[in-house]
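subagent[fold] <- orchestrator: predict structure for attached chain, return tokens only, no commentary.
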Amino acid sequence: MRTENSATDQTAIAVAGPTADPRHPADLATRPPGTASGTLLAALGVTAFSLTFPSTAWGLEGFGPWSLVSVRSVLAAVIAGACLLTLRVPVPQRRHWAGLAVVAAGVVLGFPMLTTLALQTATTAHSAVVVGLLPLTTAVFASLRTGARPSRTFWIAACAGAAAVIGFTVQQSGGALTRADLYLFGALLICAAGYTEGGRLAKVMPGWQVIAWALVLCLPIAVVGAGVALSYEPVHLTGHAVTGLLWVSVVSQFLGLVVWYKGMGLIGVPKASQLQLAQPLLTLVWSVFLLGETLPVAAPLTAVAVLVCIAVTQRARS
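subagent[fold] -> orchestrator:
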């Protein structure tokens, strides 16, 4: 799903044009190294994130929201820490810890907590449409972080996409934003900040180490949170609950972010954001097949409208 969001280097976006001919080395030379593998890795990350909301909904069948988020963080941090120790990865330089703290606050703690709270009352389809603004929000954060000045077309498309989502949420909520909507909009902002710093750090260290160190940084908080939450929230272990917990812990919280940050590091945030256009639409499909939700007509229409707006913003940045 999720999700799943960033680098300070301005990356040029490929504009549609003649396809490079493999028979002409000069054509191949114009392709940045690692483009194909970076695209594949980013696409795998998007697929993993698209299942985050349905998996969270399953997890909430057996865990309370605070228990689910804290336990998923603990499990993911243990896996990440084991990988770091096994491979004897050196501790990051001091200058990188501020960025890692932003990744931890946005991607490891903030986004999972806010979206889990939202999914207590909002459907996965509704949440997917709102969070579909994440690529656009990330692009705005990245522009602000780099000091770039996007064109007027970029801002018009960005505002149009935001207006489409706000209109959808108000229409679905009967004329006013609900608490779940506020959680989702907050999740957009904090996750975009985490993606931005994560993409920047993925330029100077392997992408999997970015999320691994962010998870380890959060481990003390997650352990305390899990202890407190589990003592107050009842747990009912079911097949759905365990499957949902394992997916959001192992895949959404770690493996998906590993390939996502690696992909962003290879192809840049703007191109990675283009791939993320498919995430809300995939989540809508999963919500129907895995959860049996009935989609309101406005959901896919709004998702497509946001997709078009984000595509325009990406071209406007080129």
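orchestrator: received. Logging for downstream: Residues 1-31 have pLDDT under 50 and may be disordered. The two ends are 26 Å apart (CA to CA).
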